[in-house]
Fold this sequence. Notes:
binds (4S)-2,6-dioxohexahydropyrimidine-4-carboxylic acid; 17 strands; 14 helices; binds zinc ion; alpha/beta
Amino acid sequence: MVVDLNIVDVKMLQGGLLVEGGISIDDGRIVKVGKEVNLPASSERIDGEGLVALPGMIDAHVHLRDLRLSYKEDFLTGTSAAACGGFTTVLDMPNSDPKTDSLKHLEMRRRAARGRVLVNVGFYACFPEEQEETERLAESPIVGFKINLSDPWSRLNFDDDDVLSSALRLAATHDRLIAVHAEDHLALMERERELRAEGADRPEDFLRLHPPEVEVSAVHRVLRIAEGSRPRLHFCHVSTAEAVRAIAEAKRRGLRVTCEVTPHHLFLTEEAVSRLGGIAIMSPPLRSPKIAGDLWKMVKGGLIDIIADDHAPHALEEKEAESLWDVRPGIPGLETTLPLLLDRVNRGELSLWDLTRLLSSRPAELFHLRGKGSLGEGFDGDVVLVDLRERWVIDSSKFKSKAKYSPFDGTEVVGRPVKTFVAGALVMERGEIVAEPGCGRLLS
Length: 444
Ligand code: DOR
Ligand code: ZN
Ligand code: ZN
């Protein structure tokens, strides 16, 4: 048997230890993992130069934009950023323009993505108004539904408990995951009125608009309502330890609930907002050093299921708007997340095994991504080779994302993704895209 590709001279995690060997990939799948002498013959051979091979990273929270929002990001630039950041699969949020809220719009999005993506892409949908369309979407190739409680993307009124309850029930009936941005919309509107009335307009006022309790109360509300139908519930970008504790408590009661945290909520604090203004504004916003520290302990303690980027690119002018009320919340994350976490591995704060769990194996499990999340035989040939020793400085001007800014700009880190393979095709090598668009697949 002659396979398509052997990646040789890599180190791989086995029982918590790094062992030397290679990976054989045929027809997009891993067919053999082991010592080089035991690998089958191959038509192509790539030297891993002693780098560490990990399963391709999976980002469960990415806004790829495109279509009418292509000025912020498009499928090609977003998936280029993903490949450069070591991600081989990303899940796209539905607040595009048009929104992914019908079969027609989902198909429009898939059509725009086809042939233009470098990594695998799965799509979320948001809830349409009509029940029949929701039923159709629930049976379509989506990874789940997304509800943003803070900024309604759907015409349904999720401030109403009965409406939210029906949505959760429908998702449960179809065994569809529901991802929630949990911030209390009514409280936010009330605060916005007050802040505007007092003339608040500094970047720091965004923190007063979105205090921790706005998130905590929304998480409690969703958990209470979910008791009735017990859907697969996933909380996006949780930014307070209190919310994580409430979620952990609900898990103990038997609810099928999980959560994610972003690198910015772990490694940055509200101080960055005064320092960087709009570049450090996202919702939910950055928190106190105490909260960020507690969240990091919860990541290491296993209370947080996955790390996700919330890669939310905007044009620079939208980040640097004169008035706070015109600043668009959100920052790019695809090209900084893995380096920031590899750096923590180097500092001895996180094991490589935990990194892989948080960014690959657990997301694959939560989103039912078959063939993903492991370098095992039979899994997809999605692989990232990382250099654990490279010391470098994050430079957002070099991003493949259209959003060439980052609150992490100028941060020195040790550890970098060097080669990314998608279904056995080398897509990124040393920061450059070396494959033609179209090697990523659309998940179905
Ligand atoms: O900061 C954010 N940006 N939070 C969201 O919930 C939406 C996102 C975006 O789409 O820009
Ligand atoms: Zn969100
Ligand atoms: Zn988001």
